[in-house]
Amino acid sequence: MDENRTQVVKEFVLAGFSHTASIEAGLFVVFLFFYVSTWVGNVLIMGTVASDRNLNSSPMYFLLGNLSFLDLCYSSVTTPKLLVDFLHKEKLIPYNQCIVQLFFLHFVGAAEMLLLSVMAYDRYAAICRPLYYTTIMSRGLCSVLVAASWMGGFVHSIVQTILTVNLPFCGPNQVDNFFCDVPPVIKLACADTFVIELLMVSNSGLISTSCFVVLISSYTAILVKIRSKEGRRKALSTCASHLMVVTLFFGPCIFIYARPFCTFSVDKVVSVLYNIITPMLNPLIYTLRNKEVKSAMRKLWDRSGLGAKAGANSQGSL
């Protein structure tokens, strides 16, 4: 490698949403609300599942608690840096921090994809094999599947990260997104990245597309297995929340990673959807359509004493 192709980039410049300070300030408030809502909703789900004996013993809610934890981790990879950048004119990130952000983005993102596939299998077992459900989805197997999801995400991310850090970056250094991700970063490399792009698309695209196919196949098998219209209606009602999560998460991921690394004007908006919006919506999607979770939340609220205090305060004000 000659001298003018060696690593000289020490930091990257991230693209902002606007060059107007007032607009950036307004976006800071909006995205801060999203991030706080993500934390409140997902922590509430984790606390509810952990505190309720019935939910904690159920494979479905054990997996849901793990999904909430992944959502917290996933949103925390990019959102805090985005919020800080809204308050600064120059949006800089050191090279090492960029690589770390890229690593954890793919680590947690791939783990969540695999966990959603596990949750689809859980729903298949619950609906199609109800008599053997507790035997099939034992706590031991659930723990192994969750650990396998994390391990799969780690292996995927290691591959992506190694392929990236082995590239030379000698300028330019402007990343065409608000966070460091593989597609916009490797486009800045001072080398021919055609083969590496093919490897990365095969890696990321294969995981996202394969998991999506597994999920759709699982729900299709459920509908085929159930003959009655009433049974299918109940199955769709049970799985509707999961289908919404799958659509919101996998749709943007397939759009970004399962194609050649060319830039579209909507990429930044799509990135906001699966990085920030989806982790915030997941708690709402699962709780608003789930009577057991809402009931457990009410019990948790009552046990905390906040419900009684709120009632006493309302009576006192009358």
TrEMBL record:
Q: Quote the Pfam families the UniProt record gives.
A: 7tm_4
- Specify the protein's topology with respect to the membrane: Multi-pass membrane protein
Record's superkingdom? Eukaryota
GO-annotated molecular function: G protein-coupled receptor activity; olfactory receptor activity
Q: Where in the cell is it found?
A: Cell membrane; Membrane
Residue ranges annotated for the G-protein coupled receptors family 1 profile domain, each copy included: 41-286
Q: Which GO terms describe its cellular component?
A: plasma membrane
Give the similarity note. Belongs to the G-protein coupled receptor 1 family.
Keyword entries, A-Z: Cell membrane, G-protein coupled receptor, Membrane, Olfaction, Receptor, Sensory transduction, Transducer, Transmembrane, Transmembrane helix
Membrane among the record's keywords?
A: yes
Q: Does the keyword RNA-binding apply?
A: no
**Record protein name field:** Olfactory receptor
Which organism's genome codes for this protein? Fukomys damarensis
Q: Which residues cross the membrane?
A: 25-49, 61-79, 99-121, 141-159, 205-224, 236-257, 269-288
